[in-house]
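FAQ: What does the model actually see?

It sees only this:
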Amino acid sequence: QKTGFLSNFISISDTEDKGIKKILSFYGGYCAYSIGASVSSKTGNKNYFELNMSKSDVIENQSDKIHLPSSNVAYIFFKNLKEEKKNYDEIHVIIILKDNSKQEFKFSISLLEKVQNRMSLVNKTVNFLKEKKFDSIKSMLNNKLIPFDKEEIIPRLKEIEPQLGEIKEFRFFGFKITLYKGMEILHLSGALIRDKQNNEFSIDIDFNSKKNELYQLRYKL
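And it is asked to produce this:
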C-alpha cells in the first residue's frame, strides 16, 4: 500500500516526479529524494539523483536479496527520465529497513542504459513462451559457461506451461551483475503474471554481448 511520499522540497521535473510516483506505486512506503554532487580525485565530479526508500513492506520482504529492489528502484526511475538523463552521472538508492539498518547502492547512467538494452532478451524470451515457440528458446540456450542439460529444459517447459496458464505480463524485480570465469554475467529477475498461477522467472546472460544467448533460465513456483 502506498502510504506517502516525502521530498526535500527541491524542484524536479514532471518526468522525475512521475518516476518517483511509479516507484511508490510498485513498492509503497516513503521515498525521500535529493540531488547532489560528489567530488573525487579519482573519478572527478559526479552529479547524482538520490532516492531514499523506507517503510516499504515489499522491500522488507526482499531484504534477503536487497540488490533486487535497490536495482529496480534505480531502473524504474531511470526508465522514466528523458532529457534529464544528461543531468546525472549516477542514481543513488538508499534502503532503510524496519530495524533501521541502511544500505546504499550507486548505479551509473551508462550501466542502466546497458541493462535497458539487454532487457530486450527478456522480452524476446517471454514472447517465445507466450507463443509456445519452445524450439526458438532452445536455440538460445548456451550451456558452455554453466553446464546444464539443454534436452531436459524444453520438455519440462512444455509440461509445466499448461499448468501455469497463459502469460499476461512480465513484471521486473531487478538485476545483479556477477563476475564469473572472467565474464560479467547479468542476472535479470522478475515474475510471469498468469491467468492460473504466477511464477518467478529469471535469466542469466552475458552483460557485454549482443548475442541472444541464455546461460540460465529459471522458474520458481
